[in-house]
Amino acid sequence: MPFATAPKTFRRTAGAALLLTLCVAMLGAYVRLSDAGLGCPDWPGCYGKALVPNTTSLYPERPLVHHKAWKEMVHRYAAGTLGLLLLGLFVMARKPVLAYARGHTTALLLLVIFQSLLGMWTVTLQLHPLVVMGHLIGGFAVAALLLMVWLEPRTNRLQVGRGTVATARIALVVVVMQIMLGGWTSAHYAAASCPDFPTCQGEWWPQMNLAEALWPAPPPAAGDYEGGTLAGESRTAIHFMHRLGAVLTLLIVGGLAWRMARMAGMARAWGVWLGTVAVLQFAVGVANIWLMFPVGMAVAHNGGAALLLLSLVAANLQLKSTTGVNCHSSSSPWRGQGP
């Protein structure tokens, strides 16, 4: 097994932290999509309290809405618990037997500290789109690093051709860029800008303002960014870019899946899995449009993005180029099993 030499406590803690990270990411998506991102207008407490108060005179410009405040605080409590788990992994990795994990656990600890700052800035900067997107990407980065920690040290890697390895690397980069576009779409509340599919607003190429859509510092409206502040043509451009990115992602990940599915053994299993996840994620995205973006479906779309990212990270860790390996040797398990 890839993690056979890792002490059980460390491995189990890493696995628990990974699952909690995914829960925190889904909670964050739920908070954002249910318009509860400013449910608590201060940080780290909520209206000056560790628990959501029953009544308060603080922040009269932002009246207390209990269900929104509790959504935000549950997300913060879960994120705080995750921070403690990552600190535990960092401490455990000081042992000589876990020296291989020191770099990743150190990076995780630094990243979760930065994530907490982004969480604070999300509130203090009133849901600034750049901060909101950064917070989302940071959460996905924590999950990817935890997966790497959980899978290390890696043994018995799959030997495949250089073309397959290169395609897997490209697919991972494309998925990361698509997730960033998805975060930008969500941060600008641009998901509903194209309420039809495959056309957008009844056109194949609608009116768009690409320059404003990509500008990192849009002006706030009424003091905050809740609900979005960009004009319709700019939001359409953001949504349309994300839609084009989804098609590109499906083609590239699908190409990798097809390539691997033509092999044998675990390579074929990876190909089937990657293809299935990519198709399901695309289908959930289309269903979001056709069903008018229900919150549950939108959260599932975030979860699908996380699953696709982690699947590609794991696949890239597992693949090894056959360069320099005699693939036609009788001892090679990949003899005649594809490129």
From TrEMBL:
Entry-linked Pfam families: COX15-CtaA
The protein, known as: Cytochrome c oxidase assembly protein subunit 15
Highest taxon listed in the record's lineage: Bacteria
Alphabetical UniProt keywords: Cell membrane, Disulfide bond, Heme biosynthesis, Iron, Membrane, Metal-binding, Oxidoreductase, Transmembrane, Transmembrane helix
GO term, biological process aspect, one: heme A biosynthetic process
Pathway(s) of this molecule: Porphyrin-containing compound metabolism
KW Disulfide bond (keyword) present: yes
Principal localisation: membrane
GO CC entries: membrane
Matches recorded under InterPro entries: COX15/CtaA_fam (IPR003780), COX15/CtaA_HemeA_synthase (IPR050450)
Transmembrane regions: 74-93, 105-124, 130-151, 163-181, 240-258, 270-293, 299-319
Protein topology in the membrane: Multi-pass membrane protein
GO molecular function: metal ion binding; oxidoreductase activity
Location(s), subcellular: Membrane
